[in-house]
Amino acid sequence: MTKHEFRIVGKSVKRQDVIEKITGEGRYTGDYHLPGLLSGKIKRAEIAHARIRRIDVSRALAYPGVKAVLTHHDVPRVLHYGSPHPRSASCTMDQYILDDRVRFWGEGIAAVAAVSEEIADEALDLIEVEYEPLPAVLDIDAAQAPDAPLIHDVGPGGNLVIPPVHIERGDVEKGFAEADLILEGEFSGGRPVPTYMEPNVCIADWDGSNKLTFWTSTQTSFMVRGALAEVLGLPLNKVRVLVDHMGGGFGAKQDLFQHEFLCALLAKKCRRPVKMEFTRRETFLAGRSRHPFRLWLRQGFRKDGTLTAREMKIVYESGAYGSHSPGVTNVGTASATSLYRCENVRLDGRAVYTNTPIAGAYRGYGVVQTYFAIDIQMDEAAEKLGIDPAGIRLRNAVREGDIAPSGHPVVGYGLEACIRHGIRAFDWAGKRAADRHDPANPAIRKGWGIGCEMHGSSAYPGIKEQGNAIVRMNEDGSVTLLTGAAGLGTGAHTALAQIVAEELGVPFETVSVVHGDTDVVPWDIGAFASHTTYLVGSAAKMAAAELRQRVLARAAEKLQEKPGHLEMVEGVILVQGQPDRSITVAEAMGPSRGIPAEHLVASGSYMPTKSYSFAAHFVEVAVDTETGIIECRKVMPVHDVGRVIHPVAAQGQIEGGIQQGIGHTLTEDYVIDRTTGRSLNAGLVDYKMPLSMDMPDIETVILEAAPDPGGPWGAKGVGEDPIIAIGPAIANAVYDAIGVRFHHYPITPEDVLNGLRRKAAESSARD
Amino acid sequence: MNKIHLEITVNGEARSMMVEGHRSLLDALREEAGLTGTKKGCDVGDCGACTVIVDGRPVNACLMLAVEAQGAEILTIEGLQPDPDTLHPLQEAFMEHGASQCGFCSPGILIMAKCLLDRNPLPSDEEIRFGLSGNICRCTGYTKIFDAIRTAGRRMAAARAQSVEA
């Protein structure tokens, strides 16, 4: 990479979108109001698995203020991708807008539009439903039983969502034969939900030309456009999707939700705009969770800690529909080929339907589960072999040229640098040698743990992605970037503007970003897979580079110089070596000497493969042996994300990911009753997330250890990485504190107390 | 449905509106007064996204009936700036520290932080954590929010000290 003096990239410039967020002026979808707006509500099933024998909406329709009611009799019967990536194999086509069958407690079975939210709500109670109950399948074991009731007619058989994913490399039997130590264990995890602060919301409005304008809180506006057009039988230019500010998504807002189709259909039927806004409870019932899982892992090690073989079987619980299960199963299973290098692997990944709420895309996409297991077993091996846990990771850490989960050689590996940095900065050896007791509280045991991860930027090879950007220099020298990338809160638009300003040679403040209107901005695959900066950033850089040439060509005419002799710095075009000869970009673009003013446009398209970001997380926990409460006291996340575009925004991603990861590991679990399929904690009090009183000190370290040539100046993704390594780091620290191993999350106080009792019983049995 | 005549002062401006008796203050602010900066994250008092100041006290606007606010002075996020061209020190600090990501919780947290600093100009870390215990942020891990509140508190205290000296 050529030496480049950065002026804007790498600086924490003021995020352009934040001013609107902190003044209250930023418009989120729910803040929009249209004349004649109706309120839409969904009737949700209160049974996990059933046929609808009869549904009577006559009383609801007659209720004053109700404008329309839809059931499965009134909507197109089209199978669609619940998750709108029709261009890829990452999703399953298994959903109807409304069906005569209920597959989970909380599924929508009818929709009402009325003049007010209250009336729509009241009308829901007037809809009479008669069910024919079907036996419900409520967990992974039940779904895999030979005589299990089938939830779908489509699919490869049984309750499988897709055919099992098999990956085999090397010679596993030979690898185990060479091992001095073989470890085997079973692991499992609960059902964390993303819990974005903005409940799902959309507004549909049809105009006289049968064109649908659709405001929605989505990460994937062009996918929403595509799926809506497909199901409604419209050309793409008759569906306009708009999204301005978004209150988070964390992956889950990639899906096309049932309410979005229903909102469009209600608006069409009523010939009036309709808004549908989830209650917080509905974000649980009808949102998307991470996949609960069961995992079996067997690994072989030499005396020095070197891995010789790995065998893994994982089953992901998809819930009632496939959503992202194909992608999650493929990505998650493939992830176990790497992180810690191993030549001999045999992996089996499956996803099964159950009659529970839908699992979908969520930050860490299938990998949170596999690396949780692998990184805990790594610790077990270190202990058995008498090796330091950080040392065994260094011995096995993925290296340059190793085959990555994507099937390509790793270019730029940062894991070793992350581990080595953390060992020093966290004082790993000193802490691990310290007393576990807390002088302030005799019930406390302290412990320290490490976890590692790698995660790809972009969904390649599952999805062949494309990033696009259009950059325009206006007649006054100001710059407009048009991008389809969603701004779900990460600061992506600011990073893109920084990239454009840097490449073009103009002040950051002169670049503005237009986004969120599928009629205007270039096509975009959506904001997910930690790829916006990497993928769209590269496209924006390409567009800016081309625009720069065109602006310089125009300036050259005015300066009567060769374009090759010119350079553009901070909005001033200079003749190299002649500092007295310069014009501003405004002068270059404006009219002069018979040359009319002009605006210039350039576009960039980029089709990446994939880069990998890396992290090692070091944590300190304090376990209260009387209450069983685990307190995460300190976290040092050390991340390699290649070139950092906006340090504060990158840190923010990391710290927020850790918050969610701590929650997954210790307290968060959306619980479904295993006899009825009913949700037991669909609210923010009973679903317990780490909040201001719970968060540890986080000392974030970002290394630019391994820039990747695929990203702008070597930038890689950061969004998903931080949620992955924290879980096993905490579980390992808990073991360090109290000597009890946990193979599941969340690790509750009850688990801790039971574990301590078991341990005490075992040691007294030995005595 | 019978509507009740409600007179409140919002961000220094007298407002008069007709609201149904069951309407929450949050819905009245968002829908009747058109002040959509205050957010609805749960509507049951769990998340704090709708925090506003009513007669000097922070409240979850979703848990208060609009008619209960009869005659009250209310401050919402739209009234936090001292004037349209100047940000409140908390807003400045939120920008600098990256304390707002998706921003959906930010109006509620900024209002709660203002209450905190009004009562306790230089809060300790524990006091800041406790002060925000009713506000859910899911993006930031809170670290940058704590930093921003500390910074704003210091600057506001310094500005007050300066104005006293002057």
From TrEMBL, chain B:
Domain of life: Bacteria
GO molecular function, one term: oxidoreductase activity
Every 2Fe-2S ferredoxin-type domain range: 4-80
Keyword Lipid metabolism tagged: no
Keyword entries, A-Z: 2Fe-2S, Iron, Iron-sulfur, Metal-binding, Oxidoreductase
Record Pfam families: Fer2, Fer2_2
Full protein name: Oxidoreductase
